[in-house]
Design brief:
49% helix, single chain, 121 residues, mainly alpha
Length: 121
C-alpha cells in the first residue's frame, strides 16, 4: 500500500489505449483459451520446485557415476502470426482431448453469452 500522495491517477497509464471495440475473433479465441484452461486448482501442485528437483536428480546421477539421461529439446517452430499459432495449438489440443458434447448442447455457450452481455453493457 502507498500513501495517497504517492498514488498516480490511472489516466496516465491508459491514455494510449483506444476506446475501439476488440476484434470479435480475438475475443472468441480468448474465451476458448479461458474455457480450455479453466478447471480445478490444486495449490499442492505449485509447492515443489521442478527445476530444483531435476537438478538434484542430475547431481545424484553424477555422484553415483552414472551418465545422466538428458531429454532431447523440442525443435522450435517458426511462428509468423501469434493468432494463428494459438489457433493451431487449440486445434491440436482439442483433437487430442476431444470430448463429446451433450445432446443438443454446445461447449462454452454460457461463457460466450456472458461475454456478449458484458460487452453490451
Amino acid at each position: 500500500m502507498r500513501p495517497a500522495d504517492e498514488v498516480r491517477t490511472d489516466t496516465e497509464y491508459f491514455k494510449d489505449i483506444s476506446e475501439s471495440k476488440p476484434d470479435e475473433e480475438m475475443v472468441d479465441l480468448a474465451l476458448r483459451i479461458i474455457e480450455r484452461m479453466s478447471g480445478p486448482f490444486d495449490p499442492k501442485e505449485l509447492a515443489g520446485d521442478r527445476y530444483q528437483e531435476a537438478l538434484r536428480q542430475l547431481v545424484e546421477q553424477k555422484v553415483k557415476g552414472e551418465t545422466p539421461v538428458l531429454p532431447k529439446p523440442a525443435e522450435p517452430r517458426k511462428v509468423i502470426n501469434l493468432l494463428d499459432a494459438l489457433r493451431h495449438s487449440l486445434e491440436a489440443e482439442s483433437a487430442e482431448t476431444r470430448t463429446p458434447i451433450a445432446a443438443g448442447g454446445r461447449r462454452g455457450t454460457r461463457m460466450r453469452r456472458e461475454a456478449k452481455r458484458r460487452r453490451a453493457s
